[in-house]
Amino acid sequence: MYESSILTGKVSTSGTGPNSKVVKRLYIKIFPGEFSYRAPRPKKAKKLIGELLIRYSAREWPIKKNGTIMDDPGFLDGISELLQQKNIINYKDLDYANTQHDLRDTITLTLGMKLTQEIIDRGWARLDK
């Protein structure tokens, strides 16, 4: 994981989470995760994959009160909007990772090939070979 974030900003939640009925604006920091080539299945061509680590404040989003932030559908849309504001073309090419890193107040997102390539091209992450 990198020491400094590549993007910071405010993200709106939808307020439709299991316990949260209020729309909130969360300050987040986005860090690059692992970027590499991996084969999706044995004997298949390698594809470019990447991940982003989204750090948020537990004070702004208390998990005991609101549940996990991944239950709020607007959070992912808010991250896409933040990427769009930074002129990223493939801003919708992301989703929650099936396996989350064991980092406090951090959500892991997996990226599609196009968004991964765009982030590498901008120099925000380096490719682990």
Q: What are the main properties of this structure?
A:
129 residues, alpha+beta, five-stranded antiparallel beta sheet, 3 helices, 30% strand, globular
Question: What does this protein look like?
Answer:
- This protein has 129 residues and is α+β, with helices and mostly antiparallel strands.
- The protein has one domain.
- 20% of the residues lie in helices and 30% in strands.
- It has a five-stranded antiparallel sheet.
- A hairpin with an 8-residue loop joins strand 2 and strand 3.
- The model has no long low-confidence stretch (mean pLDDT 84).
The largest pleated sheet is described as: 5 strands, antiparallel
N-to-C span? 16 Å
* Shape type: globular
Helix content: 10-25%
Note the beta-strand portion. Answer: 25-35%
Assembly state of the chains shown: single chain
Q: What's the number of extended β-strand segments?
A: 5
- Total of helices: 3
Low-confidence stretches: none
The strand order across the widest sheet is 1-2-3-5-4
* Radius of gyration, CA atoms, in whole angstroms: 15 Å
What is the element string, with H for helices and E for strands? EEEHHEEH
Number of domains: 1
Structural class, please? alpha+beta
Mean pLDDT: 84
What is the structure about, briefly put?
20% of the residues lie in helices and 30% in strands. The chain contains 3 helices and 5 strands; from the N terminus they run βββααββα.
